[in-house]
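Teaching assistant here, posting this on the class forum so everyone can see the example we discussed in section. The complex has two components, and the goal was to see what a joint structure prediction looks like when all of them are supplied at once.
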Amino acid sequence: MAHRLRLLKTGAHDARFNMGLDEAVLEAVSAGKSEPTLRLYAWTPAAVSIGYFQGLKEEVDEAACAERGIDVVRRITGGGAVFHQKEITYSIVLPEGHALAPASILKSYELICGGVIAGLGHLGVASTFAPINDIVSGGKKVSGNAQTRKHHCLLQHGTVLLDVDVDLMFTILKVPVEKAKGKLIEEVKARVTGLKGLLGRELPYAEAEEAMADGFAEALDLELVYAEPTKAELARAAELGKSRFGSTEWTGKR
Amino acid sequence: MKFSAIGKPAGCKLIRLDAEVEKGVLVAISIRGDFFAIPEEGFERAESRLPGTRVTDLAVRLTQLMKEEGVEPYGISGEGLAEVLIAGMEAGMKGAGDGASA
């Protein structure tokens, strides 16, 4: 029997709201007030999100972001810094014990990333899972994913690049030479790609959204029920957006 | 001796740290990077319990503390952290001492 999940298509919002709503949904699912949820969304203005354990000043050129009106936010998930500009983002929230939330974190990464891989397949892009948390196509990273477990729930969110301004990305993100492992920055840049580059055409957000919803439904055997976030979730997202994701204490905590 | 270090040991993601070591014992440490450690708060508790550890025991100690705190690490390990810290400490000793960076 298919797994019933609520599908939220919340479109483009700012970084604080986006991270606030992911956490608000996590809390609501944990409290039994909302069903397990798949959410698809985008970012406006463009933003950088950094991983829970990253040092803000080491990863992001804050002045370059401020000049360009680019938001900076710290996630509740680990992993690396991500530049969110032209992309589709998903988040999935499942309670512990759900058939799609195996206890093994590595297994659950692979299982959930299967939805992204199927979605990319719908668009004609062949891709594979690259442990721990990436999806690659033709040797290039096309999706990064991050998971946490809180309040007896799993939250995983991840991105698929629709297009990427690599020069801008590497202007606002600081890439240490240790990460490049001796490679030239040009080689690092060459390892990142967007769907535009892979497909040779502009991919409208709505088309990507539909493909991702279909991909998740197919790979994870989902019955997706379209819904809007509840009023309580929206209120909590706004509250978290202000108190946590909009606070310099949180963003600069490391 | 205070120093900063950065490294990407085998099997780990990027690890950065600021540390203070006196007579072979860790006095203070701040760990950063693009690794995962779930629950995150458990890792922070483990990190806060590291001061007082001999540098030679750091790998075993972090592994033990993460276990005690119920942390599942991905991209960081006791061995990886010790490798970065020791390399940074040695670089600091070779260089000017305080404030040296690996």
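For the discussion questions: Chain A touches chain B through 26 residues (CB under 8 Å). Chain A has eleven helices and eleven strands. Think about how each of these relates to the inputs above.
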